[in-house]
Amino acid sequence: MTETPIFIGTPDDWWEQAEEITTAEARNRTLGCWYITLVRTAGDTKPGYRLSTPSKPANQDQLRKDLEKGHAGADPRVRCLLRSTEPMPEWMRSTFVTAEIPNSGAERFPWVRKKSGRWHCLTDGRLTVNDHTMAELNPTPARFVEGTS
What we know:
There is one protein chain. The protein has 4 helices and 9 strands. By secondary structure, the chain is of the alpha+beta class. The chain folds into 2 domains: 72 residues, no CATH class; 52 residues, no CATH class. β7 and β8 form a beta hairpin. The longest helix has 9 residues.
C-alpha cells in the first residue's frame, strides 16, 4: 500500500488541478485513486471540499450500466486528484482471502470483504481490519467451494 499523499496549496488549488472525470467513474471509483468532492458548506458562503479514496474495488457491472445510461459526461462535483500508479494486488479485488490474524503467528484464517470495505475474519467475527492492516497479514486470494469428498 502506498503512503498517504501530501497535497500542497489550498483546497481550491487542488480542485483546479484535479482531473475531470465522468459521472460513471464518480459513482464507481477506482481503488487506489484519490478524489476531491465539492461539498456544500453552511450558508454556502464558500466552497468546501472532501478528499477520499475508495475502500473497495469499483463494481464493474454497475460502471458498465452507468455508461449505458449516459453517465459519460463530466461530473460537476467530483474530480480525480491523484491516480494510482502501482498495480493493485490481486487480493484487493477478491471477496475472500486467507491471511494471518494480527499478533497470532503464521497460522492462516479465512477473511471476507464486507460492503463497508473492511475485512472480517470468518472464524472470529469480532476481528475486522482495513486494507492497510490486511496488507501486513500476508493475504492470498481464496475461493471456497462446497462439495463432498
